[in-house]
Amino acid sequence: MRSTHPLILLLALALSACAPALPAREPAHADRLPVHGVVAVDQRHLQPDYWIERLGPAAQRPYLDGAAIARQNAALVARDGSVQDISALPRTLPDATVREWIAALSSRPQGERYDATGAVLPATFFDALEAALALDAIPREQPTRYGLVVRRADLRTFPDATRVFSRPGDTDIDRFQESALFPGDAVAVAHASGDGEWLFVVSDRYSAWIERDAVALGERDTVLGYGSRSPALVVTGATARTVFNPERPEVSEVQLDMGVRVPLLADWPADRAVHGQHPLFGHVIELPARAADGSLALLPALLPRTADVSPQPLPLTPANVIAQGFKFLGERYGWGHSYNARDCSGFVSEVYRSMGVQVPRNTRDQSVSPALDRTLFDESDDHEARLAEVAKLQPGDLVYIPGHVMMVIGRENGVTYTIHDTTGIGYLDAGGDLVRVPLNGVVVTPLEPLMAGEDTPTVDRITSIVRIR
Question: By the 8 A CB rule, do 361 and 353 touch?
Fold first, then answer.
């Protein structure tokens, strides 16, 4: 094991990335480890103010201003193939294009898959999934339809909600769970499943199947203009919820996740009730709703004054990057945004979205995006050269290894600390044995002591460092 840091002489952490953690193993010298099992982490490390105060005045200096962020977002659409501008889609969609989109996602798995009970899913199950794609029903050419998502909803590999797993008992990683969309997200609707209960949609960062009742179809200009209307509110908390109302369940207790932007009805009459509630003590916003015929309706709703929201994206400062990341601390890990949570790439995406910065959805695309400031590594980069780059990391920098991303929050005693959403960590105990500790959530860990295996420091597996600055 190669390292110049003394922590590694005693203990090291291993990262299981955005994949299932290995079962925990009793360390050979448990008396030398903290009870919680996460070495080099104390209570002070779990406070965002601790890291912000260490930066001094630099904590409030913007990495990028609003104009620079806008230019970067435009470059992302122009240069990154994983991101697209759905407003640029043609007025009509040929069947070849729709088939290509679906084929890129909905492919039959090669190996065996299991259900939640651990039983092998039979070939007939996958036959039914393929039939549900209804590819023969795709018209030779169709008008491009648009819609707004009306509730947080899963994006699926196939038009089916069955949870599917790679191994018996490994029920945290649903292999048919792709991502999620949020209220107000605009989509192009390309196809419907055979039973009509699912839609294949194209959004700015993902194309997949979504339940039909999560999308309301509307006029192109209304749909595409919704996200840019002003004035607006940006959700800056982990989540915000509209207040309960007994009159319109479509906009009652609707969850809005970090970074979601909703129009503010600033001209709402000060004495006019919103679904039976006085508006003075909340924010009157406008949310999309789905009518009985599937069409789009825009309805007023109330956010309480206590909601963590802002009239514009937060400034992109080190302090805000740290504070936003810590708002998710302890949240359950959710592969592909399952469990009403998020995974490692979703975590960093939503943190940056609250500051107006768009990044690709998946770690693979984030780590190599030509629109982002990135440093790429390969096998020719030795350990010492990698450590030299790690020593330059600043809060908000993103560190990628295969299948995982960590966000830097600061340095202490020569060690880089990160916050990330992971299923587990590990370390080498005092006897040199690799021990895994399941975490399954948003956590704080050091970086340099991380191990990818008994003989491989995680630093040696870094594929990319991305800087949003």
Answer: no
